[in-house]
Amino acid sequence: MENKTSFFDKPVWPVLFVLILSLIFVGILAVMYRASEPRIERQQREVYEKTILSLVADSLASRIGGEAAALQTDYPNSFKQYISLMDEDSFARKAYEVRFNDELIAYVFDVGGKGLWGTMRALVATSLDLQTLLGLNVYSQSETPGLGGRIEEDWFTSQFKGKPILEKTSPIVFVMVPEGQEKIEPKELRQITGATITSRAVVDMVRDELAEIAKSRSQEAK
Fold first, then answer.
1. pLDDT at 62 (0 to 100)
2. pLDDT of residue 197 exceeding 80
3. Tens digits of residue pLDDT in 100-126
4. What is the chain written as a DSSP string?
């Protein structure tokens, strides 16, 4: 007698089963992602705005007469009260102005550059004349974890605070010194051990972007 093979015994059935199962799970994941997308976007926006606020909190607190920590705790009220997105044509890049009692006291720029392995982006707070850094935060990068990826660490970014970055429209040249060096001069910055190129890339990104902004503003003023 011939052995009749049913449809479910054919080799094609397991393939179809896996395909159907995959489509079901992909559909479920897509629905879950769409449902959570607004929340994800809201959380990303909050982190972004809190970072901007943290970079100018000290400058604001000195004007208000309060504590920087209190301003950050009062988010989103403090952000809405003192910080606003500028017109896209103002600096040819995303920029925020910081005001107290209608007095402009600082800028925050969203700048970009190239690292060793890819692009990076940072938020940079500056004085009104663009000559001095008030704060820096690298919020996007694709450098090697444990090496270049350490450019997000607070010890690295915090050393930029208060540094002169431009002389009129010309970038200041910084000397990179070892990470463990205790005392540094105004025109020195500690580099990350094993990530000299990435450390320098951050400095170049900030200097070049601010120099470009300063030149554009200088030309507009003529």
1. 93
2. yes
3. 999 999 999 999 999 999 999 999 999
4. ---PPPGGGSTHHHHHHHHHHHHHHHHHHHHHHHHHHHHHHHHHHHHHHHHHHHHHHHHHHHHHTS-HHHHHHTTTHHHHHHEEEPPTTTTSS-EEEEEETTEEEEEEEEEEEE-SSSEEEEEEEE-TTS-BEEEEEEEE--PPTTTGGGGGSHHHHHTTTT-B-EETTEEPPPEEE-TT-S---TTEEEPPTT-HHHHHHHHHHHHHHHHHHHHHHHHHH-
Cβ-contact 122, 141 below 8 angstroms = no
User: φ, ψ for residue 76 (rounded to 5)?
Assistant: -90, -5
- Structure-token pair, residue 159: 């050393």
Q: What is the pTM of this model?
A: 0.83
* pLDDT above 50: residue 1: no
Domain boundaries, the chain: 85-221
CB 165 within 8 A of CB 209: no
CA distance 151 to 146: 10
